[in-house]
Amino acid sequence: MQEDSCANREIIQKQQEHWEKIFSGNPSKFGEKASQPAMWAADIFKKEGKTKILELGAGQGRDTLFFAKEDFEVCALDYCKAGVLDIKQKAAENQLSDRIKALQHDVRKPLPFNDNTFDACYSHMLYCMPLTTSELEFVSNEIRRVLKPEGLNIFTTRHTDDPQYRTGIHRCEDMWEIQGGFIVHFLSREKITRLSKGYEIIEIKEFEEGILPKKLFMVISRKKNK
Q: Which residues form a coiled coil (predicted)?
């Protein structure tokens, strides 16, 4: 994969350490309740008969556990070791280990799965992590590779109408380091279209979450057949 020219690459790469500290200090940083996008996604998956789900950027597993409790088979990946350990522990405590597989993985590297493995992929705010546009293109291509024909890719991202866009410290492209030391990549509709090559975009849903509130897109797309 081609490297991007980004003057703050070292700072961006240290985000993994930042997240490790956040997760290690609080096993339920974002609470135990599933996110609203996970609930929306579950309804879509059920309507389409999608049962084998890949979750990227799973964090500490609040959505992972929700999907498993809804009878989905979930493979959850995150690049933080602390988050993966939390997911495995919570899966065991809830007797869901047979439905949840958790792995530590950096999505800037090829996904460790064969082609056409999953019915659907879900990620909540992975696309607004400090990944460059070319890295996000790589992620989207890898997701497409491991999805079965007609597979769904559902992801959320903060976007360029968010109140924190262009605030804080500019790090690279449309990435800004905001309060708390988090670097956020704010995506435009145009960039989402670019990242959706090889997919049919079904819907781009606008919603809000948390304080401020954060403004997000939920992108629902389907793998195109070659």
A: none
Give the amino acid at 117: T
Report the alpha-carbon distance of residue 53 to residue 42 in Å, rounded: 10
Residues 50, 78 contacting (CB under 8 angstroms): no
Q: For 116-160, write each residue's pLDDT tens digit.
A: 999 999 999 999 999 999 999 999 999 999 999 999 999 999 999
Domain with 187 in it: 9-223
Which residues does 164 contact at the CB level (< 8 Å), separation at least 6?
A: 158, 176, 178, 184, 186, 212, 214
